[in-house]
Amino acid sequence: MLEALQNFQTEFPLLNTILTGAAILFATWVIERIVRRIIMHIGRNDNIDLPAGSIFANIARVALWLFGLIIVAKVCFGYDLTAFIAALGVGGIALSLGLQDTIANLFGGLQITLGRIVDPGDYFYVDNAVARVTDVSWRHTTLVDATGSTYIVPNSVMYKNKLVEAGEFGLVNVPIILDPTTNLDEFTEKVKEALSETFTETLGPLGIRVLMNGMSLGGLSGTVTVDIQRDAYSNAVAANMISRAIDPLLKQYGTKAYSMQ
To answer: Which of 75, 107, 121, 162 has its CA 20 to 30 A from that of 232?
Structure first.
């Protein structure tokens, strides 16, 4: 068997080189897939206090493929990449100038991830909207708001600029107008009771509040404010739910409500 393999290598050197290279690349691909899944799994595991995001998985992928290509060059072609790596060192300055933005984004991603400044699942204010971080890659951070709009922000921008974290919960406001003779304490208790049933599992620490602003043209104006978990509903949906839940009370007390979209 060994002799037959040696004869095959002697008679078909090109085919042998191709098969060897393909085998090495296939093994690299398998290892890369396994390592990437392990890193992503560790990052998503809440019981393991390690930074999440695909940036480390992407770095591992690049490193493994470079290692695989180095092995192919050495085993299949007998080419030592030491000289090539040395040449890269000589041209490193020119290369770094051409890849300034890429390098800045890479290191920015590492800094915000390792420093736990940004983690997938965090909420931040972006362009006057609140968006949830879904991933931190080697180039950019991806955020999605309640309407489904996606924001792609370079990591260097995330690192250099001031970030305002929104928190897991957010306030949803619905303006109301009450009859001036309304018993406010009674009305407030009934509003809290109705909305507690509507948002049983999604209420935030600030809970439900009824804040009165004073007299207006239509009566006693105020706002029903509810602290709700951000990933449960969009602001428009939550405001609609609040309006529907307190509608019987508004009719009972002779009031009018206007949803703030």
So the answer is: 162
Q: Hey, what CATH topology would domain 104-160 get?
A: SH3 type barrels. (2.30.30)
Residue position matching structure tokens 């800045």: 104
Nearest one of 253, 178, 257 to 214, comparing CA atoms: 178
Separation CA 230–CA 130 (nearest Å)? 9
How far lies 234's CA from each of 80, 131, 161, 239, in Å? Answer: 57, 11, 27, 9
| pLDDT, mean over the chain | 78
pLDDT band at residue 82, thresholds of 50, 70 and 90? Answer: low
Contact call for residues 49 and 41 (beta carbons, < 8 A): no
Is there a shared CATH topology between the 104-160 domain and the 169-257 domain? no
Nearest-5° Cα angle at 229, 203 to 187: 35
CA dist., res. 199 & res. 185, Å (int): 21
Rounded Cα gap, residues 44 and 47, in angstroms: 9
Which of 10-14, 119-123, 173-177, 184-188 is least confident? 10-14
User: Stretch 29-48: mean pLDDT, rounded?
Assistant: 75
Mean pLDDT of 25-51: 75
Q: What are phi and psi of 236, to 5 degrees?
A: -65, -45
Q: How is residue 150 annotated by DSSP?
A: E
Question: For strand 150-154 and strand 123-126, is the pairing parallel, antiparallel, or unpaired?
Answer: unpaired
pLDDT at position 260 is 37
pLDDT of 255 above 60: no
The phi and psi torsions of 8 (rounded to 5 degrees) equal -65, -40
